[in-house]
Design a protein that fits this description.
heterotrimer, A alpha+beta (about 550), B alpha/beta (about 140), C alpha+beta (about 100), A: about 550 residues, alpha+beta, 6-stranded mixed sheet, about 40% helix, globular, C: about 100 residues, 5-stranded antiparallel sheet
């Protein structure tokens, strides 16, 4: 893992000191709220519905046991004993007090963490494949690039006051687990025909009010040109992105209104000018980054105990079937720890659970943890021979829910239970869905499916790219839920299609039951997943199930 | 009168009496050196031929959240301008390091603003020359 | 002309972040039921403009719809305002736990 340099350390400490001073000046009135707001947002501090909320960056979702323990300590000392892991691979505290925030930031700095650029109209925390460095299907570990971008974007003088927020995601695997096509910039590490490493650059993806799938703006960029190229994109966007309407201010709108070809020319022209003066990246720094993410010292051991346990213990077998992923070393597994217990809040972990996860990482997973955008925690390097022990310990802490990729593995934003922007709640919807399908014992029968819930059009819950997306709205003072179908967050990214009129909170789960019954009835066989059925059959049978009495649908 | 902020603190505006001309006016030609008001949506591509005629280039910040001026300043510097570059408008002391690092020499703020954000708050931030991530990443760093 | 829906002034406390309401005596209360009810638009707007000058006490004051119940106390109309009087629904945290 990347270790903070002296520079990182002093930078983060200086930011804490600066923010302490800014908080003091806000409290004494020398900063207005209008002026303080962008400063607090740059340090991850929001004012939400009931309280402040502090969003802490977990760069590209990677952390170690010491950091996880500190997150638990912060939850206990300054919050209410839990943290919420988000779709941006961050962690959020829902109850901090303004005057405590500088101390919390200081505690984060103690373990090389911060809340910088987790909000505001700047380049946000760079996200990456949560299986980075471990997945069997990976071409290259995306984290050296993600860390390079973290450093480059941190406190970049030009790009702190962009038209709108700016999100970058990186994947090093052709299987896109980082939703790169729904980011302002998506980077896919590839090889060209002569086998040289480089990047495919996508721009203009994003969800929110106007969902768009990112478009390829450069199919092959030598990795050495990455910084001047990304700077060129950002400069063109900063100068030309719309500032008259915040709903039209993301780069996706600029791409849409200017046209990809025209914008591409502008970016290439800026890139050429920039590159001519670009002094080159300090290669020593790059080498340091690459060695920082070198694989841990794996120790392949036989795993008869794992095979035996799989044979004889159905609970273990079920969990292993959903929560383990293929590691590039056959004797290892990637363990996904579900933060989606039946009836629980997606993405929440108590301080006790965080401490246990830290212990497990330290003892069994080369001291590494990951946060996924699907709001689960990953132990990326667990020897198969240790997996049964890990399972037992997780089980004892309520962390062995065997549902990764299934219907109760729901992504949900905090919604109107916490968020000031939300138009409806999303957590209770997720809770109800997982409880209902657990009661029906249909989860395994239904198989792989992605349900994603957002409590407003900003789409933090990624509803547009859910196989089933749910969007909570306020319809004349009542919570109302719209369903979209057929979205996809992977390399085959697609924006879901709105199925029809929304449902009241009480009608929503029955509607989903009808929808999934229709899938079970119409699928070609148990091997055909929901999304495959949807693609084969089109939306009609599903819409008919959602709106049985609506005769217009068949027309 | 505007207050001019530089690394050594507050100054009176030595150009308070000057007439600032627009890029369009500049392109019509000038006979003596002038002060240019470069709107933050202007395209500076043709500016280099006028560099010898510029006493100062002023880029406006209509509000402190509108960051176009930072990129425009960087672009003007990239084009080779080495003369005086001024950020003008609603910028706050906390932004001073970004102002300087994106290529500006000074900031012009109005009186009210100078009263509420006094000189010491700006001077606290004049150590902007300390290493940055961007400098560190590049060979020139 | 549409009938004016009674209003209360609500905002979040600068230091705690907690939801607060303007009371009749000009102080801030944590309970919706203790808020001053405004029944005329101009008076409500004027009062809002006045509290907006208190820069170091609260953040983001606005007018929220209210209905006056039989006990003479105001209650929220919209579900968002009702949630703000309670706290989140997934945990017993926030105002509901402080009653």
């Amino acid at each position: 893992m990347y270790k903070y340099s002296e520079f990182d350390e002093s930078f983060v400490r200086a930011r804490v000191t600066e923010f302490r001073d800014q908080v003091a000046r806000r409290i004494d009135g020398s900063l207005t709220e209008e002026e303080f707001k962008p400063l607090r947002l740059k340090n991850g501090l929001y004012l939400q519905l009931h309280a402040y909320m502090l969003r802490v960056a977990i760069p590209y979702g990677t952390l170690n046991s010491r950091q996880m323990r500190q997150l638990a300590m912060i939850a206990d000392r300054w919050d209410k004993g839990y943290g919420h892991f988000t779709t941006r691979q961050n962690v959020q505290y829902n109850w901090p007090k303004l005057a405590d925030v500088p101390d919390i930031l200081e505690a984060l700095a103690d373990v090389s963490m911060h809340a910088i650029q987790t909000s505001g109209n700047c380049i946000r925390n760079v996200t990456a494949d949560h299986f980075a460095g471990a997945a069997a299907d990976e071409i290259e570990d995306p984290r050296p690039i993600a860390e390079l971008l973290r450093q480059w974007s941190t406190d970049h003088p030009e790009f702190q006051y962009l038209p709108r927020k700016f999100k970058i995601a990186v994947t090093g695997s052709p299987k896109d687990r980082a939703v790169t096509r729904a980011h302002d910039i998506g980077i896919r590490m590839v090889r060209n025909s002569s086998g040289e490493p480089g990047c495919e650059i996508l721009i203009g993806g994003g969800l929110g009010r106007t969902p768009m799938v990112g478009k390829v703006v450069r199919d092959f960029l030598p990795t050495g040109d990455l910084l001047p190229y990304i700077e060129a994109i950002l400069r063109v966007y900063n100068l030309q992105g719309r500032r008259d309407n915040k709903y039209k201010a993301r780069i996706k709108i600029l791409v849409h209104e200017t046209g990809l070809e025209e914008l591409k020319q502008q970016i290439e022209a800026e890139f050429a000018a920039r590159k001519a003066l670009f002094p080159g990246i300090n290669m020593k720094l790059i080498e340091n980054l690459e060695s920082a993410f070198a694989p841990p010292g794996h120790d392949p051991k036989p795993f008869h105990n794992f095979i035996d346990r799989t044979r004889h213990d159905p609970a273990f077998r079920a969990w292993a079937g959903t929560n383990l992923s293929e590691h590039r070393i056959a004797e290892y597994s990637i363990v996904t720890v579900s933060l989606k217990p039946v009836g629980g809040t997606p993405g929440d972990a108590t301080s006790k659970q965080m401490n246990l996860l830290a212990d497990l990482a330290e003892r069994y997973a080369h001291d590494e943890l990951r946060v996924s955008h699907e709001q689960n925690i990953i132990l990326p390097h667990v020897a198969k021979s240790d997996v049964p022990k890990v399972f037992d310990l997780l089980n004892g802490a309520g962390l062995a829910t065997a549902n990764v990729g299934l219907i109760s593995d729901i992504i949900a934003c905090p919604g109107m239970d916490y968020c000031a922007l939300a138009t409806a709640r999303s957590i209770p919807v997720a809770q109800e869905i997982s409880k209902r399908f657990d009661e029906l014992r249909l989860e395994r029968e239904i198989g792989p499916i992605k349900i994603k819930i957002s409590g407003c059009i900003n789409a933090c819950g990624h509803h547009h790219v859910g196989h089933i997306g749910i969007l909570g709205l306020d319809r004349k003072g009542v919570e109302n839920y719209q369903i979209t179908l057929g979205g996809d967050a992977t390399e085959n990214a697609a924006i879901g299609e709105r199925a029809g009129p929304g449902f009241s909170a009480s009608a929503l789960v029955p509607a989903l039951e009808r929808l999934l019954d229709a899938y079970l009835e119409n699928r070609a066989g148990p091997d055909e997943s929901f999304i495959e059925s949807y693609r084969r059959l089109g939306s009609l049978p599903f819409k008919t199930a959602l709106y049985p009495s609506d005769t217009r649908i068949a027309a | 009168m505007k207050t001019i902020v530089r690394d050594d603190g507050f100054h009176l505006d030595d150009l308070a009496e000057e007439v600032f001309i627009s890029l369009e006016e500049l392109k019509l030609g000038v006979e003596t050196p002038v002060c240019l008001h470069l709107a933050n949506d202007a395209d500076p591509a043709e500016l280099p031929m006028f560099f010898p005629w510029l006493k100062l280039v002023r880029i406006p910040f209509p509000n402190f959240a509108d960051g176009r001026g930072f990129s425009l300043a960087a672009r003007v510097r990239q084009l080779g301008y080495t003369g005086r570059l001024r950020a003008d408008g609603h910028l706050i002391a906390d932004q001073y390091p970004q102002v300087r690092r994106s290529g500006f020499d000074e900031v012009a703020i109005d009186e009210l603003h100078a009263a509420r954000q006094p000189e010491f708050q700006w001077k606290m931030r004049t150590g902007w020359r300390g290493t940055s991530y961007q400098q560190r990443l590049l060979n020139s760093g | 002309m549409r009938k004016f829906v009674p209003k209360v002034i609500t905002t979040n406390d600068l230091m705690e972040g907690d939801v607060i309401y303007l009371a009749e005596d000009g102080s801030w209360t944590r309970k919706f039921g203790e808020a001053q009810v405004f029944t005329a638009a101009e008076i409500a707007d004027e009062a809002l403009a006045k509290v907006e000058q208190q820069r170091d006490i609260h953040v983001g004051a606005y007018l929220a719809d209210a209905k006056v119940e039989k006990d003479g106390r105001p209650r929220p109309v919209h579900f968002r305002e009702r949630f703000r009087t309670l706290g989140p629904s997934n945990y017993f945290h926030g105002k509901q736990a402080e009653e």
